[in-house]
Amino acid sequence: MAAIISENLKFFSLFFKSRDVMIFNGLVALGTVGSQELFSVVAFHCPCSPGQNYMYGLAAIGVPALVLFLIGIMLNNHTWNLVAECRKRALKNCSAPATFLLFGSILGRAIVAPVTWSVISLLRGEAYVCARSEFLNPSAFQDFPLGYGPDSMARFSCRDTPTALIPFKDEVIRRLKYESQFLGWLLIAVIACTIFLVKCLHHCCSPLSYHQEAYWTQYRSCEKDLFNRTAEVHAKVLAANSVKQFFGFVALDKDEKEIVSQYPVDEAQPSPQWQEITGVYLYRENKGFPLYSRLHKWAKKILGNGMDAECKETALLAV
Predict the structure, then answer these.
(1) Do residues 238 and 189 share a domain?
(2) Which residue range forms the structural domain that includes residue 8?
(3) Domain count along the chain
(4) Whole-number average pLDDT of the chain
(5) What angle do CA 318, 197, 21 make, to 5 degrees?
(6) Which long-range CB contacts under 8 A does 22-28 form with residues at least 24 apart?
(7) Are residues 195 and 240 in the same domain?
(8) Which residues sit opposite 284 in a β-bridge?
């Protein structure tokens, strides 16, 4: 039974590792949907006033989307790799198309949450109804009472709708929600077509075969996992040595004592080595052999940009 459970855990681990970006984007989208639902229930209150309705409705859709977009950029490791690359090497090793695609990759991952927010807002229709109600044309509705202007129309999305206009409230909201949901579905279609075209362009322009690209993905995942785990152990051992030198002893539990004794650390890596493995990396080849990351390139003791006369370059990112 234990063996079966272990094999199943390994299977799910490999499944999630192979689809980490897709699953992460899905979780971001689900989290955004939940946040949007909470916002609609708790924080959304249409002002029911001409001029204010329009600004409030747009703000309810646009401002959270902008905040989520900026958060997505800040939480993307590629952003800070790109900043480091610009600061240290001014992107001199990246061609203009590759640099454009690097920015596109960062922006593409950052728009998942804001696009989800905008789509859900449009499908729900509350913000759109609030924003558009004051611009309704009374003559578009049969037997609509005369003498009612934007002040009255702006109240269709609120509870205090004028009594004479209550019979028209359901039809007005239905029309506005139809427009809102139409825009939402149109946005979904545009995004889906864009993703499809980008994926096609990516695979058509990539110099790597499908299997080599899959291998590169596996390599990046393994290198990142091993690097982070090793860095954690290295930092703990180095910190333990420093604390011991200061106090004369260091308080470690049993597992930490085994780690310190098993992995002796004398000193931290020098700054030039950190600089060599930091920054954006594009796929390179040296004399026909692939260089899958900056760390891989550093381990091969290759200086410069690591490109031979018949180099291949792609904008797939390696952290």
Answers:
(1) no
(2) 2-205
(3) 2
(4) 77
(5) 35
(6) 25/109, 25/112, 28/72, 28/112, 28/113, 28/116
(7) no
(8) 291
